[in-house]
Amino acid sequence: MSDHEFGGNDDLSLPKATVQKIVSEILPSSTGIAFSKEARDLLIECCVEFITLVSSEANEISEKEAKKTIACDHITKALEQLGFSDYVPAVLEAAAEHKEVQKGREKKANKFEQSGMTLEELERLQAEQFAAAAARHT
Amino acid sequence: MSGDGGTYAPKSPDLSSFYSPEGPTDEAPSTAAQPQAAGAQPQQLSSQQSQSQFSPQQRLHLQPPATTYFTGAPAHSPQRFPQGQQQQPQQQQQQHQQTHQQIKPQQSPAYSPYLSSPSTVSQAGPGFTSSSPLQSQHSPQQQQKAPPFYVQSPYGTQYKPQFPVQPAQFYGTAPANSAPLPGQADGVSSSPSSFAAAQIAGGMPPKRGAAAQAAPAPAIEPSPVKTKFPTARIKRIMQADEEVGKVAQQTPIAVGKALEMFMVNLVTKSADVAREKNSKRVSAQMLKQVVESDDQWDFLRDIVSRVENEEKASAGGAGAAAAGKVRG
Questions:
Q1: How far is CA B164 from CA B117, B137, B161, B169, in A?
Q2: Which of A66, A107, B103, B274 gives a 20 to 30 Å CA spacing to B247?
Q3: Cβ neighbours of A22 in B, within 8 Å
Q4: B48 or A99: which leads in pLDDT
Q5: Whole-model pTM?
Q6: Which residue has the higher pLDDT, B193 or A114?
Q7: Residues of A in contact with B241 (CB under 8 A)
C-alpha cells in the first residue's frame, strides 16, 4: 500500500521499519549498542545489493541448467559460489519449513471441504440458504 | 541425451555411472527407428530389452494402469528431447533418493550422518552401482511407477534389522511383498528435513515429504531474528534485474533467510567494531570498516565508499559526527 503511495524508488529498497526491527533483534538493548540512522540506511543498501547479487548469480545458474524459473536450489548454489555456503543449511531449513506450512494450508482447505458433511448434505444446505436469501430479498 | 548427461554429470559425479547405462535403456525404443539397430540386429535389440526393460514392464502389469504413459512416452513422443530434459532432473533426484536408501542399511544406527549427507552419498554411491549396475539402473524407474510407500516400506522392514544384503538382491526379490507397514514407512521417511529440503529445492514433487517432519535439527543455531522480510518486496528487488525472469514461490523465502543471516553477520560484526571503539552507536563508517575487512563483502565496497563520500559532503548526521570523533 505504502509502496504504491511512494512509488518508484522506495519500491526497490527494503522497508526501513522492518530493517530497524531486525537490527534491534540482532542487537537487543541489553547490548547497549544501537545502529545510527546512516548505518541503517547503508545497511539497507547493502542488503539490496546482496539480494541483487544472489539473484543474478542464481539466475546464471538457472540459465546454465536451461531452467526458466529460479528455484531454491539455484539460490543455495549461488550462495555457495559467492562464499556464503555457511548460510545454506539455514536457508534450506527455512524453505522446508515454508513448504510444510504451505502443505498445512492445503490440508486445511481439504479438511474444510471434507469435515463438513457429505456432498448431498452440503447441497441441501446450500439450497436452503439460497432459499433463505431469496426470501429475504423478496 | 548425452548432452544432458554432460550437464548434470559434473554437479553430482556419482550419477555419471547411472547415466551411461541409463542412456541405452531409455533410447532402446527410439534407436529401433534407425536402420542400423533395427535392420542389422533386431535380435540384439530385443535381448537388450529383455535385459533392461523387461522387469519394469513386467512390474507395470502389476501396477495400476495410470503408470503406463511412462514407458510409452519416451518411445513415441515426437518431442523426445525436451521431454527427456525434463525427466532427467527428476530421475536424478530419484537416484539420489535411492542412493540414500541404499546406504541406509549400512549406516542405519544413526541418521545424523545424513545431515551432512551429500558427500556421503557420492562416496558410497559408485560402490553400489558397480556391484549392481543393472538393478540400480532399473530402480529409479520402479520408483516412478510405484506409489511411494510401495518401495519404501520394504526397505525399512527387511533391511535395517536383518540382512547385510546387497540392495540389488533385494530389488530382485522385492516386488512380492508390497504390504505397507506403517512403522517401517516411518523409519524410512524419517530422513532429516535438510535432505527433504534438498529434494524440494530441486523441484521434486514432495513424494515423502509428508513424513519428513521429525528431523533432528541440524547444527543451525536459532536465529535471533523473528521478523521476516516481506517476500513480495524481495521478489520485486530480485526481478528489478531485467535478466531475472520467473522466480519460484519459495525462492524469495530462501533469499529472505539468506538476507537475514547476511544482516546478522554484518550487524554483529559492526557492533563488535563499535564496542572496540567504545561507541554505543554503530556508524556508517564502522559498517564500512567491516565491509572492507573481509573479501567476502567485496561486492559492497562500491556502496560503502559512495556513502561515505556523500556523508563527508553533507557532513550531517550524528553517526557521521561520532565516527569523525572516533577517527580523529
A1: 21, 21, 9, 11
A2: A107
A3: 225, 227, 229, 260, 263
A4: A99
A5: 0.46
A6: A114
A7: 52, 55-56, 59
Query: Which of B103, B132, B138 lies closest to B118 in space, CA to CA?
Result: B103
pLDDT band at B14 (very low <50, low <70, confident <90, very high): low
B262 and A84: CB-CB below 8 Å? Answer: yes
Residues of A in contact with B205 (CB under 8 A): none
Q: Tell me phi and psi for residue A35, to 5 degrees.
A: -95, 135
> At B109, which amino acid appears?
P
Single out the residue of B296, B29, B150, B309 nearest to residue A38, CA to CA.
B309
CA distance B301 to chain A (A): 9
A56: which chain B residues are within 8 Å (Cβ-Cβ)?
A: 241, 243-244
Whether the per-residue pLDDT at B185 is higher than 80: the answer is: no
Surface of A (28-87) touching B: CB under 8 A? 28, 31-39, 41-43, 45-56, 58-59, 64-66, 68-76, 79, 83-84, 86-87
Cβ separation A55–B244 shorter than 8 A: yes
ipTM > 0.85 (yes/no): no
Inter-chain CB proximity B251 and A51 less than 8 Å: no
Q: What is the DSSP letter of B11?
A: T
Instruction: Compare all CA atoms of chain B with the CA of A53 and give the residue at the minimum distance.
Output: B299
Look at residue B186 and tell me whether its pLDDT is greater than 80: no
A17 has a chain B CB within 8 A of its CB? no
Cell representation of residue B198: 534438498
Per-residue exposure over A95-119, b if at least 16 CB sit within 10 Å of its own CB, e if not: bbebbbeeeeeeeeeeeeeeeeeee
Among B272, B283, B271, smallest CA distance to B327 is for: B283
Average pLDDT over residues A68-89: 93
Q: List all residues 6 or more positions away from A42 whose beta carbon is below 8 Å from its beta carbon.
A: B284, B287, B288, B303, B304, B307
What's the pLDDT band for B220 if we cut at 50, 70, 90?
Answer: low
Task: Please give the Cα distance from A78 to A76 (Å, whole number).
Answer: 5
Nearest CA in chain B to A95: B254
Q: Which of A18, A36, A46 comes nearest B282 by C-beta?
A: A36
- Give the integer Cα–Cα distance in Å for B226 and B268: 16
> B315-320 long-range CB contacts below 8 Å, 24 or more apart?
B317/A36, B317/A37, B317/A38, B318/A36, B318/A37, B318/B281, B319/A36, B319/A37, B319/A38, B319/A39, B319/B281, B319/B282, B319/B283, B319/B284, B319/B285, B320/A38, B320/B283, B320/B284, B320/B285
Which among B159, B154, B174 is positioned nearest to B108, based on CA atoms?
B159
